[in-house]
Amino acid sequence: MFQLTDIPRLLPEILLLVLALLVLGSDILEKWGRTPEAQLERVKSSASLTSIGLVMVLAVALLQSGYLYQLPETAPVNFFTNIIRNLQSGGPGGDPVAGVFVVDHLTMIARLLIIGSALLISLLCLDVRPTAHPGEFYALIVFATLGMCLMVGAKELLLAYLAIELTSIPLYLLAGYFRNEARSAEAGLKYFLFGAISSAILLYGMSIAFGAALNGVSGAANMNDLTRFDRIGAFTPSGGGLITLAMLFIVAGMGYKLAVVPFHAWSPDVYEGAPTPITAFISTASKAAGFILLFRLLTETFPAMAGAPVLGEAAGGWTGVLAVLALLTVVFGNLAALPQNNAKRLLAYSSIAHAGFVVLGLLAWAAAQQFDREQGLVALLYYLIIYSLTNIGAFGALALIGQQVGGDDFEHLRGLARRNLPLALLFTVCILSLAGIPPLGGFFAKFYIFMAGWQSGATWLVVIAVVMTIVSLYYYLRLLKVMFIEPAVDMTPVPMSRGVAAALTITAVGVLALGIFPNVILSVLERA
Amino acid sequence: MGLITLPADVPWLSLIWLSMLVPAIIIAVIPDRYPDLMRWVGAGFALLSLILSLSVFLAYDPVKGGFQFIEQLDWIPQLGISYLLGVDGINLPMLLLNGIVIFTGSLMSWNIDVRTKEYWVWLLLLTTGVYGVFSALDLFLFFVFYELAVLPMYLLIGIWGSTRKEYGAMKLTLFLMAGSALVIIGMIGLYFGSGLRTFNMLVLAEQGFISGNLQWLLFPALFVGFGVLAGMFPFHTWSPTGHVAAPTAVSMLHAGVLMKLGAYGCLRAAMWLMPVGARDWLPIIAVLTIFNVVYGASIAMVQRDAKFIIGYSSVSHMGLVVMALAAGTQIALMGAVLQMFAHGIMTALFFAVVGRMIYDRTHTRQLPELGGLGRVMPFAAAMFILGGLSSMGMPGLAGFWAEFNIFIGVWERYPLIAVIAALSIPITGAYILRAVWSVFYDEVKNPEFLHLPKLTWQEYTGALILAVVLVGLGLYPAWMTELIDTAVRPLAARLSEVAVALR
């Protein structure tokens, strides 16, 4: 049952909803402003409202989580401590809200990651010039963020599905936002079509899982709540055709959302065609949310079917399936990125490859010891955080270059180091982190996830993944070569706007700091 | 007691690598219009790092032996990763070598006037990594520094290099990264396989019980992974290409120090931690190194580009180091460490002469186009000949003691291999003399060469420092051998113990 005390536990989501409506509403009131100057004002007001609002939501979520500061029990009672105490009463812990939305450490960490990413994206968007009604553009970003926040806490099939749709539909619209450009329109349509099909597959899997649980309930036992993950897990048999089918459909449906090979076909085109900040959003926050939902779905709905990702006859279960997908993903993603001559498309393939690495963290569930499984989740979260920071930084730099230089092919990047050295260096930090060069975060993330994968028994996969990081180095170095070694076409400096500069600096500093001192964040992640 | 005493509560080893990181940051904020200031800051801190590593070298107590100047801090305790530094008789000479080469290298970098700031920042970051590797005793930390040392190389060669620089840079980086991929696999295997869940090499070496089968699997991963960087056959092809393409200071650092980093990794990570694996694999590796030594030297014989000659001579000489490691006896290991030091100094001198003094003035390194330069720059000729004599193993120079020890040590284990490898001695003599003759003594082919600019004081100073060390070590090797012996003796004992125990 929903109780009044559950309201603070849903506070970030409620605030996001309010913010989205506020952005929409404030822009509607200015609808008559059609002159270019008025348009500019509208863009600015919507964009800054979104950014400021997200900063506040992030601050509330951070305070609620208690990771930075936990109010001691013995604190004196006064006005301020009361506010903090009330907020932190909605912090991690307790039963799921209404049995469907759990607020635990995992949700809390994921929320912070998602809202933080959305904030960085909104900073990148400060200079985007949306068509006609800017309010829509920014409000859609906030709606998608809300959807992702719901996704990571979902404990029940229906809520999970609704959250996925609440995330996806705004993203379809955003990907195709510049409908006058053929590329963007194509991206939107493609994303929509693939998304709709994958939703259908996912829904089919969910209904089979529900049906299997219904079969499993014997006689007059309690038949309520059979859409909840743990109830399905409790009532379904550990093997059998039906439940295996459900698992396969769910993995495939989520695989489409996460762009895992062989369900990736939509992603390079969508990433290339969508407005660059939106590409960053799709490739980071929505992937992170998807992975966390997949983690919950698989570990709670199919706990007995984990199987093992080893070579040979013992292989099987969903870790076995995921191991095959991870293999295909890292190999294909990295090889396909090699011949690309468009930086955005190259990063799109590299995102596919990175999804393959993340899957290694999920495999850890097959490890024998509880400790190793927990390490797998920590590695997964750390990877997602670093990957989100890095990819937002990289796409952010490309967004700026796209605006200022006029494109994101390699030739537009040529000689960037001599046209704007700080931008080139920030971009380089992100690229090297993606490549996994210490002391940047990307290195430790990869290393950690390799260790998790190794303990799950998927040694063979780790070896292949390590080899593939060398392949990936080639195309990342090509980017470096273009920026630093090749001569510039023209030497005019590339100006850097404040929003992008702020976002890039945050990501680069974050990647460096978390790479050198990962234990700062690991102690928080270990609570998940 | 060491020769001097340093206060114990100062983190000397951290200071050494920080003395390279700090100037990198300082130079990054110096405005572009003061290139000279950048050079002075860079060279000044390089001198500081040399003085620091020399002080640690002198303060090390060879009687007590073992690891000294240990610094330990928890870094990522959840995973058993710590910030652990320490030196013994093996890495201490390497620290000193790096100090000498970076200081002389920074003197040789004075004429870089294209994108000066970036050059110095990358160069100093590279050295930070090298210092770090030579002092790290935690495998993870070791690897982090190792990668830090490899990557700046790409940009240094790609931007400031010559002769197919982009190809050379990419080839070098990919080879080295492929090596580090093997190292990662080996590291994770050790971490879980030892059952200790730690990367602390001291603990792994003392308490780690790693089963023989696992050692057999992991040893080649670590040894070959680092061996790539040491130029081990058949993974050596990146090295001549990379050395030729690199700017002078980078060639000096690369051939002089970075290749040693690979050999050091083989010794420290692979052989020290996995003696059983070493017993099974080292004979195979010893056979492979014959190719390094003899084939490398023969290839050097037919090169026309002076830098390629030195590049292949490095392959040949580093092959001797790996061969000595593969023999694993006390004398051989002593020779290996000594050769790393001697070859580092000698190659740095070669590249300084060929890359800086000659190429930057004549803009060619082709032997048929050069000639008669001995008349124009007698100092350069003297330095090159000195390096050449050391390379041939002339008594009285550092190279003699190194090669002498290596051949004796290898003879103890693999007499046949020692005999075959000794073929390289006359070949080395031949290609060095050929280079000396056609660069310095042949008739002058291009009259413009008679009016080349004079050598600068930086070039004189740098080359003289290297020459003094080369002669000093040759005349009185005991100042280094005693030290090396303290570390090599237990290691050799450990290796032979395993061989006896399992016989």
Descriptive keywords:
A: 528 residues; mainly alpha; 0% strand; globular; B: 503 residues; two-stranded antiparallel sheet; 20 helices
Q: Beta fraction of the residues of chain A?
A: under 5%
Order of helices and strands of chain A: HHHHHHHHHHHHHHHHHHHHH
Query: Strand arrangement, largest sheet of chain B?
Result: 1-2
> What is the oligomer described by this structure?
heterodimer
What form of chain A results from the Cα inertia axes?
Answer: globular
Uncertain runs of chain A are none
**If helices are DSSP runs of H or I spanning 4 or more residues, what is the number of helices of chain A?**
21
Quick recap:
The complex is a heterodimer of chains A (528) and B (503). Chain A has 528 residues and is an all-alpha fold. Chain A is built from 21 helices and no strands.
Q: What report would you give on this structure?
A:
The complex is a heterodimer of chains A (528) and B (503). Chain A is mostly helical and 528 residues long. Chain A is 72% helix and 0% strand. By secondary structure, chain B is mainly alpha-helical. Chain B has a two-stranded antiparallel ribbon with strand order 1-2. The longest helix of chain B is centred in the last third of the chain and has 33 residues, at 330-362. Chain B starts with 11 loop residues before the first helix and ends with a helix. At the A-B interface, helix 18, helix 19 and helix 21 of A face strand 1, helix 5 and helix 6 of B.
Question: Helices and strands in order, then pairings?
Answer:
The complex is a heterodimer of chains A (528) and B (503).
Chain A: H1 11-28, H2 36-65, H3 79-88, H4 105-124, H5 134-153, H6 157-175, H7 182-216, H8 229-235, H9 241-258, H10 267-273, H11 276-301, H12 317-337, H13 343-363, H14 370-405, H15 410-413, H16 416-419, H17 421-435, H18 441-455, H19 459-485, H20 498-516, H21 519-525
Helix pairs in contact in A: 1-2, 1-5, 2-4, 2-5, 4-5, 4-11, 4-14, 4-20, 5-6, 5-11, 6-7, 6-11, 7-8, 7-9, 7-10, 8-11, 9-11, 9-12, 10-11, 10-13, 11-13, 11-14, 12-13, 12-19, 13-14, 13-18, 13-19, 14-17, 14-18, 14-20, 17-19, 17-20, 18-19, 18-20
Chain B: H1 12-29, H2 35-59, E1 68-76, E2 81-87, H3 91-108, H4 116-135, H5 139-160, H6 165-193, H7 201-207, H8 212-229, H9 238-245, H10 248-273, H11 275-301, H12 306-327, H13 330-362, H14 373-376, H15 378-392, H16 398-413, H17 415-422, H18 424-441, H19 457-475, H20 478-501
Antiparallel strand pairs in B: 1-2
Helix pairs in contact in B: 1-2, 1-4, 2-3, 2-4, 3-4, 3-10, 3-13, 3-19, 4-5, 4-10, 5-6, 5-10, 6-8, 6-9, 8-10, 8-11, 9-10, 9-12, 10-12, 10-13, 11-12, 11-17, 11-18, 11-20, 12-13, 12-16, 12-18, 13-15, 13-16, 13-19, 13-20, 15-18, 15-19, 16-17, 16-19
